[in-house]
């Protein structure tokens, strides 16, 4: 039983490592023509945020929400207070540099700074959870998948070409974008489909969707006027890939294959720190960027290896800093720093 529970922490640990890798990608490959190998590996990371969504619904769909206030307030504060703490330095800089007013305040309280849009998504999920329970979202995975696909396709092919500077929060911070993964997580827990998932089918679907995602990425990158990182990340085929990967990893078969060792236990530990790491790693990345700029270091040689190494360094430093805070004051770290 302990091993099974640790497996889900392990999945969150893998997901947060992938999130860090997504953000180190643009540092290592800056001003560099992307190789096909780099693009392919980056496409593999598109299931990172979906894994967090599945995990949230998986563990919360059975939550007693009868007393809405008693349920909602602690959950909201658990996410929102660390969000405010980590967002405030970005907000202060925005005020100092750009004279941010009401817009800055809204970004501060709503997850509009840095890459903190996902906190806004989780807050929406907490607010809407009683509706998801009442209308049995877990029985409507195909419908939720269609909604997410339409939202993503509408943004990529209709909105983005006209409004490429649209803030991340405006499209990625809307729960419709991630609805299918919440439905999937709820179905795994509530509807008992974990034991009925075909590993072979999910694996075949993951491979096919990954190939489609790679092809769609190349197509979007070759469109006239495409920006350097267009096509990488959010897109309809990436949704299909993430759905297949999440279904595969949350199946009973994969959970049964999990074996505890030092490396997996460490990754599971990262998973237990995942929210704090998601918020804090951007500061480590910022500091790293300053050091790289000062030294003029440009990641010579094989970019994939530098990318992996830099990801590991950023993840480990972030984890070490959060561990130190937690050791000094567990209560403060839990309330204010998300660990």
From TrEMBL:
It is a multi-pass membrane protein. This is Acyltransferase. It is found in: Cell membrane. The chain crosses the membrane at residues 7-30, 36-60, 72-93, 113-129, 141-160, 166-189, 201-221, 233-250, 262-284, 304-325. GO terms for cellular component: plasma membrane. It comes from the Bacteria. Keywords: Acyltransferase, Cell membrane, Membrane, Transferase, Transmembrane, Transmembrane helix. Belongs to the acyltransferase 3 family. GO terms for biological process: enterobacterial common antigen biosynthetic process. Signal peptide: none annotated. Pfam families: Acyl_transf_3. GO terms for molecular function: O-acetyltransferase activity.
């Amino acid at each position: 039983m302990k091993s099974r529970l640790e497996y889900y922490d392990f999945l969150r640990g893998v997901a947060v490592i992938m999130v860090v890798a997504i953000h180190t990608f643009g540092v290592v490959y800056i001003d560099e023509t992307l190789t096909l190998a780099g693009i392919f590996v980056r496409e593999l990371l598109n299931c990172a945020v979906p894994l967090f969504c599945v995990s949230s619904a998986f563990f919360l769909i059975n939550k007693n929400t009868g007393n809405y206030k008693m349920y909602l307030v602690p959950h909201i504060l658990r996410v929102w207070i660390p969000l405010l703490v980590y967002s405030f330095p970005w907000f202060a800089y925005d005020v100092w540099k750009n004279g941010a007013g009401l817009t800055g305040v809204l970004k501060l309280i709503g997850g509009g700074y840095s890459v903190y849009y996902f906190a806004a998504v989780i807050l929406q999920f907490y607010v809407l959870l009683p509706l998801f329970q009442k209308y049995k979202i877990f029985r409507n995975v195909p419908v939720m998948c269609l909604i997410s696909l339409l939202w993503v396709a509408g943004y990529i092919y209709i909105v983005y070409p006209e409004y490429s500077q649209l803030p991340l929060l405006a499209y990625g911070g809307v729960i419709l974008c991630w609805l299918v993964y919440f439905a999937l997580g709820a179905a795994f827990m509530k509807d008992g489909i974990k034991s009925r998932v075909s590993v072979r089918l999910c694996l075949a679907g993951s491979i096919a969707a990954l190939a489609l995602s790679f092809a769609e990425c190349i197509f979007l990158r070759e469109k006239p006027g495409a920006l350097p990182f267009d096509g990488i990340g959010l897109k309809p085929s990436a949704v299909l890939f993430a759905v297949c990967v999440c279904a595969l990893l949350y199946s009973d078969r994969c959970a049964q294959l999990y074996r505890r060792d030092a490396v997996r236990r460490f990754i599971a530990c990262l998973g237990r720190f995942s929210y704090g790491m998601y918020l804090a790693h951007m500061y480590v990345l910022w500091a790293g960027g300053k050091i790289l700029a000062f030294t003029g270091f440009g990641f010579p040689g094989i970019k994939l290896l530098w990318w992996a190494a830099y990801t590991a360094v950023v993840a480990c430093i972030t984890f070490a800093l959060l561990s130190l805070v937690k050791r000094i004051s567990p209560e403060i770290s839990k309330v204010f720093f998300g660990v």
